Amino acid sequence: MDLEQLRALAAVVDQETFEAAADELRITPSAVSQRIKALERSVGSVLVRRLKPVVPTPAGERLLRSARQLLLLADEALLALRASGAETHDAAGQGPAGGRAGTPERLRVPIVANADSIATWLPPAIREVALGGRIAVELLRDDEHATADLLRSGDAVGAVTADPRPVQGCSVRPLGTMVYRAKASAEFAARWFPGGATAEALAAAPVMQYDRKDSHQLALLARVAPEAAPPQHFIPDSVQYVEAVAAGLGWGMVPDQQDPDGVLVELDTSWSEDLELFWQSWTLDSPGLEEVSAAVVRAARVLRPSLDI
Asked: Across the strands, what pairs with 266?
């Protein structure tokens, strides 16, 4: 399999159309199509469904993860050679590697994390890597219980996840624990919980939800008020979520990092939830990926240490 064919496959899936993939690779849509067809002939399977958006077939999904690993290592090698001043040529003799279509100026390292990590402790790691000048981090977002799925699909090479079980071909490092507490504004607490945070009050008081994957509030309700079915507001932005809680739209589970000064009222000190986080990354001999991993682990030192650390 030719690396440029694999690059075309990844670009078509990422960009979702042949035209957008062509723009990224700086070639024509026809050339992208020819590379995909040649790759399909070489593996004997249809790899993408030519829809809008383009989606990979099951065979394409299986190939994509290995393709992304190969491309990461190939790009890293090309960038290292370019930095050393060495002149390299591709297999077709098309000139120096630095001029090859699709070869990035920086190493692209896609990682995924949950929204609360992105809003609190993770940005210093991204800044540290970005200031190094040789890596471009692509930060994806998903629920902490789903981020590992992007490692399996190959969409990310590293993930902040709540799952300690290693994805096949990945290593796991404990990061620490985010502590969530049931909180509300003082005005909201006075209005909805005048006699304390009872099961009856929880059944009526509006609750803030991040999105429909958010399990923090519903897990607490299932534990302390299993019959409660209060009104729910959905705000899928970590910062605006806490702002909505502070504005009195509802109560919600707020991580300590987002209320460091204790402005919000804690409804019950026993209603806390510990979210233990882990860093999973591909097991590759990639200095770029290791640089990102080391920065993430350093940034996570602000979290409460896990028992395993």
From this structure: 183
**116 neighbors 214 (Cβ within 8 angstroms):** no
Query: What are the pLDDT digits (tens) for 27-58?
Result: 999 999 999 999 898 888 899 898 889 888 88
* Contacts (Cβ under 8 Å, ≥6 apart) of 200: none
| Cα dihedral sign, 202-204-206-210 | positive
Q: In DSSP terms, which residues pair with 159 in a beta bridge?
A: 112, 280
Q: Encoding tokens for residue 287?
A: 């200095």
**CA 59 to CA 105: how far, in whole Å?**
30
**148 burial level (CB within 10 Å; 0-12, 13-18, 19+):** buried
If you write DSSP's letter for every residue of 108-153 in order, what string do you get? Answer: EEEEEE-HHHHHTTSHHHHHHHHHTSSEEEEEEE--TTTHHHHHHH
Three-state DSSP at 34 gives: helix
